[in-house]
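Morning!

As promised:
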Amino acid sequence: MNNKLLEISNLKTYFFSDDLQVPAVNGVDLYINEGETLGVVGESGCGKSVTSLSIMRLLAHTPGKVVDGSIRFKGKDLLSLSESEMREVRGNEIAMIFQEPMTSLNPVYRIGDQISEAVKLHLKYDKKKAREHVIKMLKLVGIPRAEEIIDEFPYQLSGGMRQRIMIAMAMSCNPTLLIADEPTTALDVTIQAQILELMKKLKEEKGTAIMLITHDLGVVAEMCDRVVVMYAGKVVEEADVFEIFENPKHPYTKGLLNSIPKLGQKSNRLDSIPGTVPTPTKMPKGCKFAPRCSQAMDICRELDPDLVKIAEGHRCRCFLYQSEMVKEA
Amino acid sequence: MFRYIVKRLFGVVPILLIVSIFIFMFVHLIPGDPARLVAGPDASHQDVELVRQQLGLDKPIVTQYITYISNLVQGDLGISMKTKRNVYDEIADRFMPTFWLTVWSMVWAIVFGLLIGVISATKRNKWQDYTGMFSAVSGISLPSFWLGLMLIQLFSVKLGWFPTGGSESWKAYVLPSITLGAGVAAVIARFARSSLMDILREDYIRTGRAKGLKENVVVWKHALKNAMIPVITMTGLQFGFLLGGSIVVETVFSWPGLGRLLIDSVSFRDYPVIQAEMLLFALEFILINLLVDILYGVMNPQIRYE
Amino acid sequence: MENSGVIVQTNEQVTQIEVEKVRTPFLEFWRKFKKQRMAMIAGSFIILLFLIAFISPFIAPYSSVEPDYDNILSPPSMEHFAGTDAFGRDIFSRILEGTRISLFVGLSSVFVGAVGGTILGLISGFYGRWLDSIIMRFCDVLFAFPGILLAIGIIAILGPGLGNVIIAVAIFSIPIFARIVRSSTLAIKSTVFVEAARSIGAPARRIIWKHIFPGTVSSIIVYFTMRIGTSILTAASLSFLGLGAQPPSPEWGAMLSSGRDFLNTAPHVTFFPGFAIFITVLAFNLLGDGLRDALDPKMKD
């Protein structure tokens, strides 16, 4: 079970505009084991989505560019693949679903055509077989009247239905890794639960690994095996899901957990982390979280800590747990 | 879809009505006595009165309009003052050369315009884009009569490849249709580029790429079909530009079409012909816009299936 | 109370944004416009054209009207940069003279069209209801005729001549401005500040001129510039067809038309006036594109 399916090390993705370069992802290290669900958590702007687009190499049409690091998937470095080799991976071995189900389907093509496009391309099915497969996939994701829906257009479906279609499309070629970028954010709460339930079911049936990007810790608790917390383009803490909730180390992780409302909480006070995420152009010196951190020390404003193992399977980027470093300084 | 078409058809009716009133009033807007104008400056007083009675100009204006419309419906457009022939025949003779000229101009303008627009959009801010867009803004700024004359000078006079006028062989169509289509091709290229660039930013384009589709499939299949919806609307509007442009181009190439007939009629003050031509051009323009609206519905599934 | 920290924070953000927006709209526009090299070149060229229009009588090397029968249809040379025409007149000098005519025709016709269209658009958008329907149907009818055809129709009524060309071109510019101004008016009308002005009982005319009109100015400027190119082109076409300026006027379209008969032997007589029309129209179109990108990037062709 513990085979690393995807391993990202020191990934740096910068955005270039005019004469400015903006480090959106600034040295991310993370891995996903086969068949596990990894939650990637952080506030908006911390580089979660850019990391996922870097894995898919979908940045070519944006001002963004991977400038350093490696992304190893099943042992091969995705960044060194040619564009046509990469196309074999996209939609086939790694599939992706996006945050915006309302706009992620092409309005002028039928649902079935859009799903079978990938099926024909990657699984080399003929027209008839592809159609059968698409109907099977639609039923799998719980679409009623699959035989009719297949010939309908996106505008005829609700947001939740469209996200099911997107999942069917992503799962249609049996990917080994599914990247889900905030798949439920744009949906109603009840629909959110249904979609999460569906993803869980599919994962158990097919053994697909999932990289679930979200800012919702409730979703993480429900879905994930392991969690990576990102802040300002870097991983600040990484641990399995119980460890994160029971024994968070990084002050930022603690802050995130404190900002979730809990049942039975005596005071109705909600702790929020003071301040906002620094913009990539105005990064503070030293630890990027120091300006918002209640436990910040002098060294935190001078040096940026490394991501250090503090227990088995638990790594944290904070000087509080690196006493030797503090003493030296 | 059916309801959509019916709605469009009814939308045209008021415009048709006002246009017909407009054109009917045309003769009345000219300063001076319309009967005198039609009879000509050399006609005697009796002749003028005779014309007035013949044309019914002595009757109330509403009656005149009703007569005008009922004649129109029967295909009676009056008599040309210059040739004394039936205006209907006069126009019928000239219709086909203009029709084919505009069709060929449109065809090449769409092909080249789309090609340049798509290349510019996909090679954004590269040399292909700059070249394409500079050619396009030049195409919009080119005086067609100048372009036509320069093409004649180069390809007919110097190189002798194409005839300087006439409409007999396919060769005669080459230079006039290039001249007429250049401006439209340029407008289509600019518009196709901007629509396509908007669409290439859409989420479903990213979905297509995430599926592992080739970039060519993403652009030419997924993006272009969406971009075609606004582009077709734009192209329809350009037909009016083409009809207007044909007037100039036909004069340059001595083309035996409606445009040259109009200019000849204006210089001769052949009012029945001018009136009929104005009506015909306006009708064509309205009809084409109606077709474009319907085509828009066909392209857009949300309208097609409702 | 509990969330006071968050509230303070938002206030800080607001003040920060306001500080950043102290730049005046004009400076903001200039900062964007400066970057557009083509539009800058076009703009400088247009300034040069205006200069020529004013001082052409003093800088033209030859008279634009006096015939010179020793120099009939002579090709371009050091004495005559653009050659001479069928009357031996220096084409270069005549083109310089013609600049004034083209700029005058372009500016005045678009100005009249813009004023008429803006007023109709403001009324239509602000008052709505039946006034809006009538004005928009009127525009539909004008749109039912291809521009140049409408102009020819108007000239058929008024008779040929440059003055009538200006009127004709102005009339077919009206519906374009009316539609643009109407749509901006509708957008601005629904915003809060107009609501506020209404609720304190400001008269309609004051609301229109103080609050709505300024918001439509940027799109009017862009279309104004772009229409000038089209108008110069249309006016030249009409003169070429013999319906506008008449020879011996050094209007570019008329000059070109008179050179047609000598296309085989003296192509320069048609080439240079046509080229002058082309680069002038090109300059206005490039400037218009640049203004559009700097003032309102959302606006489409």
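The interface with chain C takes residues 268-270, 272, 274-276 of chain A (CB under 8 Å).

Hope this helps with the figure draft.
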